[in-house]
Design goal:
alpha+beta, seven-stranded mixed β-sheet, two-stranded antiparallel sheet, 16 helices, about 45% helix
Length: about 350
């Protein structure tokens, strides 16, 4: 069954000062994952609904709005523009329409001559989600991600009545090329509709082969429900383990991380945020279990759970920059402090 997540629409967009910082921190997080686990692992995480949501929260966007998809993917596309390991093509509006051209332009040295096949996958995925998942929707964001071996898709649609966004995430590991529309998604984030027709559902194979009408009621037990309220209520929105992680984060002793204290501006709050970033990288099970937790990393665009401090955000970026690029250490030692921070949870 598909995983279904309710994502209420919230107004507003990322201001320039926030987006530029999301790009920088997103680049640092992505590059550590690529260095430690490989580009295929980064792709797998970006196509996982919960980990993707955790990343968006960690970067400071709204913890459960439609913009978590468009803004986060836009920031990552910019962050990874020079990468030779992974490519993000497409985006919102006209950028999404231009995906085939971008796949051709950006695939040199990565796709090994498979550009036309990747373009076909991109178009098929858009067709499946736009024409076979019937919920009165229209796709307005389409991002195609690929490495040397794998591909994935993050795309988003909006109900024509304009009340809910629906995020579709694909991973090539889940796609049956003999029946491209058979349960391809790693996640569909949506408002549950009891009268929606999902022809990609495995049990609707018969309808894909000929019949054009069927009703498929989504199983509530497979739904991840984010409330319509914008506020975060810890006892409701975080599990007990998530609340325990927050308590531990506030108790991290900076004196145990003297390597980081040598960086100007690093104190208790920066160490705490670095610990959360490290857990996003090294403890993905935590991120996938309790993504709302990461809204406490730098705060949120609209002040939920608290307003973002630009100086605090900059101190995290500077610290990550030191760890990943400037520390004169062998590779096996470079991320040791991050691993220790992540393991503190």
């Amino acid at each position: 069954m598909h995983k279904v997540t309710y994502l209420p629409l919230h107004g507003g967009k990322a201001p320039r000062w926030l987006f530029s910082r999301m790009v920088k921190l997103g680049e640092k997080i992505s590059n550590v994952i690529i260095d430690e686990y490989g580009a295929d692992e980064l792709l797998a995480r970006l196509t996982d609904p919960n980990w993707f949501q955790a990343l968006s929260c960690a970067l400071g966007y709204d913890w459960h709005s439609s913009g978590t998809t468009t803004v986060t993917m836009g920031a990552l596309k910019e962050a990874l523009r020079e990468s030779r390991e992974i490519v993000i093509a497409g985006g919102k509006g006209k950028a999404g329409i231009n995906t085939p051209n971008e796949i051709r332009d950006l695939s040199d040295g990565i796709s090994a001559g498979n550009e036309e096949k990747l373009i076909e996958y991109s178009r098929l995925a858009a067709k499946v989600d736009g024409s076979m998942v019937y919920d009165n929707i229209s796709i307005y964001h389409h991002s195609f991600i690929f490495t040397k071996k794998k591909w994935g898709i993050v795309q988003q649609a909006m109900e024509n009545r304009g009340t809910m966004a629906i995020r579709f995430q694909w991973n090539s590991d889940n796609v049956d090329e003999k029946d491209f529309a058979n349960e391809p998604h790693t996640g569909i984030d949506a408002n549950k509709s009891k009268e929606s027709l999902d022809l990609t559902y495995e049990k609707n194979e018969w309808s894909r082969k000929g019949l054009v009408e069927a009703l498929q009621e989504l199983n509530e037990s497979n739904a991840i429900i984010y409330p319509e309220r914008h506020a975060i209520i810890q006892r409701l929105d975080l599990g007990e383990k998530g609340r325990e992680v927050l308590r531990k984060a506030y108790d991290v002793d900076p004196r145990d991380y003297k390597e980081l204290l040598l960086i100007k501006g690093v104190g208790r709050s920066t160490i705490r945020s670095l610990a959360m970033v490290a857990s996003l990288i090294y403890n993905k099970e935590l991120a996938m279990r309790d993504p709302v937790l990461y809204a406490y990393n730098v705060g949120g665009k609209d002040g939920i759970p608290y307003r973002i401090s630009r100086s605090h955000y900059d101190s995290i970026i500077e610290s990550m920059d030191y760890i990943t690029d400037k520390a004169n250490l062998p590779k096996e030692e470079k991320y040791a402090v991050l691993k220790r921070l992540g393991s503190s949870f």
